[in-house]
């Protein structure tokens, strides 16, 4: 196993982990702000960096059954959201490969 390097994102308005401020995603990477997480409001992102993915698991959600994996900050290991791996309903397939970050677990940097 090699050394894991933390990525630093450039630009204004970067979301970071609320616990350790590790960069996670640029604000302009938000696809939707109309999501609900376990801790309240959540955002759907195209891509996220500096995370570790947990094991895949099937989870019933308000929009149907999905296969997801929890994602945690690679620095402090706080769970910050999840990644959609598979959506069973055709109308939800746009979520596949996308990430949910919970607003309460984020801090807006710069």
UniProtKB/TrEMBL annotation:
The keyword Zinc applies. The keyword rRNA-binding does not apply. InterPro entries: Yippee (IPR034751), Yippee/Mis18/Cereblon (IPR004910), Yippee_fam (IPR039058). Keywords: Metal-binding, Zinc. Residues 13-110 form the Yippee domain. It holds the Pfam family Yippee-Mis18. It comes from the Eukaryota. GO terms for molecular function: metal ion binding. PANTHER family: PROTEIN YIPPEE-LIKE CG15309-RELATED. Belongs to the yippee family. This is Protein yippee-like.
């Amino acid at each position: 196993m090699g050394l894991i390097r933390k990525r630093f994102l450039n630009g204004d308005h970067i979301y970071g982990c609320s616990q350790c401020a590790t960069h996670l995603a640029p604000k302009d990477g938000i696809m939707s702000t109309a999501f609900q997480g376990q801790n309240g409001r959540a955002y759907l992102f195209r891509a996220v960096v500096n995370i570790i993915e947990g094991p895949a698991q099937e989870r019933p959600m308000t929009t149907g059954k999905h296969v997801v994996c929890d994602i945690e900050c690679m620095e402090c290991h706080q769970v910050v959201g999840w990644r959609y791996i598979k959506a069973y309903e055709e109308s939800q397939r746009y979520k596949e490969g996308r990430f949910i970050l919970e607003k309460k677990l984020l801090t807006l940097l710069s």
